[in-house]
Amino acid sequence: MTGWVWPGGVGDPTPDNVLRAWPATVAALPKGTAVIGKVIGRQPFGVFVQIDGVSDAVGLAEVHGTAAGTVPPPVGHTLSGHVIGHAAHNCQVRLTLDT
């Protein structure tokens, strides 16, 4: 077990729901919006987040370029951050994490 997990567990947004909700997600989460969410997936490059209040939105907080030795938070961890953009090609809300 490596600890790296893709989203897709019970209760995580499905790809179809994320796609259908994308226009509403972008409208609800403009750049600069403060968010709180739960980690639903982790990879060496960052964490996938289910954003509170927008259940079919998936955020991605990338961790490359952070301090050496930074480890992505575990699945289930609640975190806060801000929207820094939107990636329409994969329907992901780009996030930066609060420190």
Order of helices and strands: HEEEEE
How many strands appear in the DSSP assignment?
5
What is CATH's topology name? OB fold (Dihydrolipoamide Acetyltransferase, E2P)
- Average pLDDT works out at 87
Q: Low-confidence parts, pLDDT < 50 over ≥5 residues?
A: none
How would you describe this protein?
- The chain is mainly beta.
- It has a single domain (15-97), classed as OB fold (Dihydrolipoamide Acetyltransferase, E2P), CATH 2.40.50.140.
- 14% of the residues lie in helices and 37% in strands.
- The protein contains one helix and five strands.
- It has one helix at residues 15-28, and strands at residues 34-43, 46-51, 58-62, 78-87, 92-97.
- It has a five-stranded mixed barrel.
- It is globular and about 35 Å long.
Secondary-structure blueprint of this entry?
Layout: H1 15-28, E1 34-43, E2 46-51, E3 58-62, E4 78-87, E5 92-97
Parallel strand pairs: 3-5
Antiparallel strand pairs: 1-2, 1-4, 2-3, 4-5
Question: How is this structure best summarized?
Answer:
By secondary structure, the protein is mostly beta strands. The protein has one helix at 15-28; strands spanning 34-43, 46-51, 58-62, 78-87, 92-97. The longest helix has 14 residues, at 15-28.
